[in-house]
Amino acid sequence: MRSLGLLTMILLLSACAQTVRVTPTLPAGSDGVTQGIETKVLIQVPPDAVQKHHVESGLVVLGLINDWKIDAHSNLPDAVGKLFEQHYDTVTLVKSHHNDCSDCSLIVRPRITEVDVSKVAMQSLVTLELSIHDARGKLITTLTSTGSSPFLSATRVGAGVAGYFIPFFGNMLGSKVVAGTVERAMDEALTDIGNQLAHEANSGQLARTWLPLDLARKQKYGQYEYTAERVARSHGCDMRTDGLRLTEKKYFKESYQAYCWGKPRFTINCEYGRCSADEKNSAFAATDN
Question: How far apart are CA 247 and CA 98, in angstroms?
Answer without folding.
Answer: 26
